[in-house]
Structures are given as structure tokens and as C-alpha cells.
Specification:
This protein has helices spanning 14-19, 78-86, 131-149, 151-160, 170-176, 183-187, 190-210, 228-234, 242-266, 276-285, 334-346, 357-368; strands at residues 32-36, 107-109, 162-166, 216-219, 271-274, 300-301, 316-317, 352-353. By secondary structure, the protein is α/β, with parallel strands linked by helices.
């Protein structure tokens, strides 16, 4: 369930983010596909026999039904806010029996909590949808879509769609840095491990493109050592865990470099990346600038920083989730997710490379008009 924590902050846009409603992208209706881990899982794991689930209270406490939805949030997650900006309904989990007929036109969410870039990441969660399987499901989805609308129209829908992929953090917190040691930490020194991850991630992105993706938003990892879970386990003084911070500092620049290389190879800006480490550093260092009271303590949990164990009905639970950057030991609150997506939509090139999401979608819309 631990995962790459993408909490963003943007000093130059801080007040605007906090006071504005979610920006709607001026673009024609498009499908939306989501791949990755628990930051973006809309409930696929509810249909699996795994411990990596968010299907019990108090998850979902701030949804209209006040019931858990499978999202690792008190309410909306990152894909939900992007769907809002696209003027679309939220994508359904691919495993949901409701994903039939015209619902297929909206897109699909293939993400699964606990997974990583590598197939051996999250093995303790057993039955999760690893990246290779998510891509297989994407192929299956396209066959189902073609049966509904025809092959040519299905290809157009996929080509015009927006794709989000959020993966990588689990490869550190649920693999390399597993306590007391892991097979990968014995196999690789950290810099070599990061290079290996990037090379494997490149293969995943190339496969997405081979399957028809033309607009792909890729998020990096946030400051992994600063989440409440890592503070509780590794920090006696409340300072971010140095080893995990080093991992993020190595991973994110290489991810951007790899994405720029792919765009150069393809001769087009297929991929855009979110510099989530820089974004989150602002959040973590000055939560009050964004209306939060704390960036260290999770709203739901137990132990130091509410960072130990799972968020359950017997956990400590804060009364005002909007004041907390973190909802549970690893995941951002609904309000933090909204700020993250606002930055993805409108952030400067200090945070988005080579452009923000609104610009990418506007370029495509102008090309088609």
C-alpha cells in the first residue's frame, strides 16, 4: 500500500491554488486511462484477495456516501480531480462489473495498490495487478472497445485519450528499503538500482506508446523519506529519512531525462513529467503557506506521527481532514490531491516538463480544429 507520494506545492501559485476552484481544461471530450499504484487506484484491489485494500472505514469518509470506495483517500484522489478538469465522470476500475457498454467510452483505471515498476515489488501483498498485467488489461480493454464502436473508432479514442501513470515509490519503500534488508539491496548499490528502475520504466512507457498512447502524464516520486510512515519507522527526531530522500533525488532527475529522450526519439511530446519532489519539498517545508496545520502527522493512523500500521476504524482520526497534508501514513488527503492536480494543470516548467497538462491538451485541441 505504500507508494510513491506525490504531494505538490507551488510557492508562486500558492494563494491561487488555495482559493481557486478546480480548473476545467477546455478540450473536447476524451477518454482517460490510469496506470500505477495506490496513489491512483480507484478500487481495483477491492476485487482481489489482497491486504492492499482501502475498502473499510474511515476511508471515503468525505465522499457523498461517506463510505469507502477503494481509493486510498478520505475522498477524491488524483485521477478524480483530473477527470473533473476534463469535464468527465471518474474512470471506473477495470475490474468493476459496471465497466460495460458506453462506460467504456469514458476510459478505465487499471491501477493497483502495492505494485511497482518491478514485478518483485510488493510481493507481500500477493494478489495485485502488476504493471505487465495492467498493460495486458489495456489490450483487452481495446478489444472490448472495438467490439462496441469498431476498430477504427476504438483506435481514435485511444489515440486522443489522456493517460496517467504513477509508479516507482513502492520500488523503494516496498522493495529496496524493506526492513531489515531486501534481495534488491544486496544485488544493487542504490545508484545502480535507480538506473535499473529507469531502464525498466522506459520499457513500460514504450509499451504504452506501442499500445496507442499519445498523451502520457508521468509522475515522479515525492520526498519518500518525509511521509509519516517513514518518519515513524526511521526518524527519531522528525527529520526526513536520509536514505529514502537520496533515492528520490537520484530517481526523479533520471526519470525526466529518460522522458525527454523518449520524446526526442519519437519526434513529439508524447510524455510530460511532473517534478513531484520539488513540488512536495515546498509542501513539506511550509505547510502553513497552503492552509495546512501539519505535513508530518497523518490524519488517520496510530503511533508516532500516526505513521504506524493501517488506517482503520480504531485508528486516531483527525476531525478536519483539510488541515492535513497526509490522510494516512503514506497517502495525501483529498485537499492535497486537489492542489497536486491544480499544479499539474497549470504549473510552470519548474514543476512540469516540457509543459503542463493544460498546455499539452490545448495543443492537441488546436491541432484537431
Amino acid at each position: 500500500m505504500a507508494n510513491s507520494v506525490v504531494l505538490v506545492s507551488l510557492v508562486a501559485f500558492g494563494l491561487l491554488m488555495l482559493t481557486s476552484t478546480m480548473t476545467r481544461v477546455e478540450a473536447a471530450h476524451r477518454a482517460f486511462f490510469v496506470f500505477g499504484d495506490s496513489l491512483v487506484d480507484n478500487g481495483n484491489n477491492n476485487y482481489l484477495a489482497t491486504t492492499a485494500r482501502a475498502d473499510s472505514p474511515p476511508y471515503g469518509i468525505d465522499t457523498p456516501s461517506r463510505r469507502p470506495t477503494g481509493r486510498f483517500s478520505n475522498g477524491k484522489n488524483i485521477p478524480d480531480f483530473i477527470s473533473n478538469a476534463l469535464g468527465s465522470e471518474p474512470t471506473l476500475p477495470y475490474l468493476s462489473p459496471q465497466l460495460t457498454g458506453e462506460k467504456l467510452l469514458v476510459g478505465a483505471n487499471f491501477a493497483s495498490a502495492g505494485i511497482g515498476i518491478l514485478n518483485d515489488t510488493g510481493i507481500q501483498f500477493i494478489n495485485i495487478i502488476r504493471m505487465f498485467r495492467q498493460l495486458q488489461y489495456f489490450e483487452e480493454y481495446q478489444r472490448r472497445l472495438a467490439d462496441l464502436v469498431g476498430i477504427d473508432e476504438a483506435q481514435r479514442i485511444v489515440s486522443d485519450a489522456l493517460v496517467l501513470i504513477t509508479v516507482g515509490g513502492n520500488d523503494f519503500v516496498n522493495n529496496y528499503f524493506l526492513v531489515p534488508f531486501s534481495a534488491r539491496s544486496r544485488q544493487f548499490q542504490l545508484p545502480d538500482y535507480v538506473r535499473y528502475l529507469i531502464s525498466e520504466y522506459r520499457k513500460i512507457l514504450m509499451r504504452l506508446h506501442d499500445l496507442g498512447a499519445q498523451r502520457v502524464l508521468v509522475t515522479g516520486t515525492g520526498p519518500l523519506g518525509c511521509v509519516p510512515a517513514e518518519l515513524a519507522m526511521r526518524s527519531p527526531n522528525g527529520q526526513c529519512a536520509a536514505e529514502l530522500q537520496q533515492a528520490a533525488s537520484l530517481f526523479n532527475p533520471q526519470l525526466v531525462e529518460m522522458i525527454n529522450g523518449l520524446n526526442s526519439d519519437y519526434g513529439a511530446n508524447i510524455f510530460i513529467s511532473a517534478n513531484t519532489q520539488q513540488q512536495t519539498n515546498d509542501f513539506i517545508s511550509n505547510p502553513g503557506a497552503y492552509g495546512f496545520t501539519t505535513s508530518k502527522i497523518a490524519c488517520c493512523g496510530q503511533g508516532p506521527y500516526n505513521g504506524l500500521g493501517l488506517c482503520t476504524i480504531i485508528s486516531n482520526l483527525c476531525p478536519n481532514r483539510d488541515e492535513y497534508v497526509f490522510w494516512d501514513p503514506f497517502h495525501p488527503s483529498e485537499r492535497a490531491n486537489g492542489i497536486i492536480v491544480d499544479m499539474i494543470l497549470r504549473g510552470s516548467t519548474n514543476y512540469m516538463s516540457p509543459m503542463n497538462l493544460s498546455t499539452l491538451l490545448a495543443l492537441h485541441t488546436n491541432t484537431n480544429t
